[in-house]
Amino acid sequence: MIDVKNLTKYYGRTLAVDDISFHVSAGSVVGFLGPNGAGKSTTLRIITCFIPATRGGVSVDGLDVFKESIKVRDRIGYMPENVPLYPEMRVREYLMFRSALRGLPRQKRSAAVDRVCEQCWLSRPEDLTRRRLDQLSRGYRQRVGLADILLHQPPVLVLDEPTIGLDPAQVREMRNLIRQLGQNHTVILSSHILAEVEQVCSELVIIAGGRLVAHGGLAELRQRVTGPSRLVAEVKGAEPAEIAKAVAALPGVSDVKHSQVGNWTRLNVASQDAEDQRSALAACIAQKGWQLRELRRQVASLEDYFIQITYQQSMQRGMLQDKEAADE
Ligand code: ADP
Ligand code: MG
Fold this sequence. Notes:
The chain is of the alpha/beta class. Helix content is 39%, strand content 28%. The strands form 3 sheets. Strands 6-7-8-3-9-10 form a 6-stranded mixed β-sheet, with helices on both faces. The chain has a 4-stranded antiparallel β-sheet with strand order 2-1-4-5, covered by helices on one side. The model has no long low-confidence stretch (mean pLDDT 89). Residues 40-41, 81, 160-161 line the site of magnesium ion.
């Protein structure tokens, strides 16, 4: 449904998006995840024809966003980071005005507005359609923003940080709403909070420093991080290399790294599967007559993975920029 190919965007000399490619298939709900400044909004603005790319291209439903932007806009409902609303208008009045702007025939506007108000819980359980926009909470204003982009019934929804600034109850409501819309739309939603997208998305595209760092199904990415388990142990009683060698010989152990912490040898032990080898390791140390002062199992979470890969990417970018600065 959405094809992003080698997308690159410079703002003057700032490289905001660096050669990103990914594909979103029809019907999926994709989380576009990355820390602040990663290039999420920039990518989404290009996908939705709001700004041009420097290099590379995007197609939506087979249509090129640069050459056929009018048709692309027809197929996309785009909710930007800050939803612009006219504060003095009332909800229904605003949505009627928007449906006129979108070119909906006059006789269809009222029904369309009723439909989106229903879809975004603006008419039920409480009727908010006659409220002034500046009297609505941020959570409700976001819902009006969402109602607005559903007026022309686009198959694709692009939501830029739709839950930013909402309180926890409003976040949950927005999330439920998006989940519901995900049943019959292709959705791409950005966030800088993993927990957020984990709840609604089946797929993740992770970017950092303008680069794509991971893309895959949620289950697949989770497996990637929780695959092999790791043990951390601190041992004393022999030469570090000898300790590492003894531990490496244990069944199921695939890799042992060691370092020194004072006169203790710190081991980082990877095993082939998720099996817990703490007792085997403790028995081995005891049998050798060595001392053990720490033994714990580390199971990486998707959150650890997210932080690790985005941090690595920012470090690399930081170093590159330093190098460029030094070259100049
Ligand atoms: P995100 O949405 O992931 O927080 P953005 O796409 O907004 O990231 O920004 C990516 C990078 O591009 C940042 O370094 C930001 O400062 C820069 N940037 C964004 N918009 C502009 C702009 N209009 N002009 C110059 N630089 C910009
Ligand atoms: Mg943004």
